[in-house]
Specification:
The chain is an alpha/beta fold. 39% of the residues lie in helices and 24% in strands.
Length: 274
């Protein structure tokens, strides 16, 4: 089991990478945040809880949506991650945000507190997904809604799939390595199961497919590479890293359409009502 000090060091390192690549203010992937806003029916003046906020997605977008009469509580188990959200909120001069360091399985809020609960790409990190959804339901007001988004099937996520294939062929896998936790809820129906088990009604689930455009000639993949594989990249010297970068560029070349890359993205989203 990882020690507490090691865990803190790991999350501090992760937070540094997220901070390095996080937008200065508003989201650069806001279309995903808007889906969560839509499915939860979030409106101006609402009081919203965002779980596993990380670097502020979708908390920042929700704060802009609910306005001065509403509020958003950004919650994460790691203060180092919330520091990134705080910086972004300060940059946008948002005064309607609160920040809470806590586990999503044990929320420090009273029953019937929030109009909506959201979570973008955080449920896969939960130690008990059903308990997380039960807690989300508990703190929701009657008829309040929860909306959770997770990563979809990797084969339909060009960016993730290409990087994973290159990494597998370049860096040796760890002994006994298991499928990534981020893909826990990739399959259709897997999110619906936990929503149903937590007691939600009017449960729905769908796949979100998008075409993502990235500028040609740019190493658009660098942010995800460093955030996802940062610890393994440390094993490479300068020449090895240069060779890896060249291999990634070559792998993405088939997706170049004129002056831009066209990539596929697939995520899963589910919602339910208290």
């Amino acid at each position: 089991m990882m020690s507490t000090s090691s865990s803190r060091e790991e999350w501090a390192a992760r937070a540094a990478l997220w901070d390095k690549h996080a937008p200065e203010g508003e989201s650069v992937t806001d279309e995903l945040n808007q889906i969560l806003i839509e499915i939860t029916g979030t409106e101006s003046g609402d009081n919203v809880l965002d779980l596993a906020s990380g670097s502020g997605e979708p908390a920042i977008s929700i704060a802009l949506k609910v306005g001065a009469k509403g509020s958003v509580t950004a919650l994460d188990a790691h203060g180092e991650m919330l520091a990134v959200t705080r910086r972004r909120a300060a940059k946008l001069e948002l005064s309607n945000m609160a920040f809470e360091i806590a586990r999503m399985e044990d929320l420090p809020f009273a029953d019937d507190t929030f109009d909506a609960v959201t979570c973008r790409f955080g449920l896969q990190s939960s130690e008990d997904a059903v308990q997380t959804l039960r807690e989300a339901r508990r703190v929701l007001k009657p008829a309040g809604k929860a909306g959770f988004m997770t990563h979809g099937v990797e084969e339909r996520n060009t960016l993730s799939a290409v990087l994973a294939n290159v990494i597998r062929s370049t860096l040796p896998e760890k002994s006994g390595e298991t499928p990534p936790r981020r893909l826990r809820f990739r399959d259709a129906g897997s999110l619906r199961v936990v929503f149903d088990a937590a007691g939600f009604s009017e449960v729905g689930e769908r796949e979100v497919l998008r075409t993502v455009i990235r500028e040609g000639g740019s190493q658009f993949w660098r942010s995800l590479l460093e955030r996802r594989y940062g610890s393994r990249l440390k094993a490479l010297d300068a020449e090895g890293r240069s060779q890896l970068d060249a291999a990634i560029d070559e792998a993405f070349a088939v997706y170049l359409a004129g002056d831009h890359y066209e990539l596929q993205s697939a995520d899963m989203v589910a919602w339910g009502t208290k």
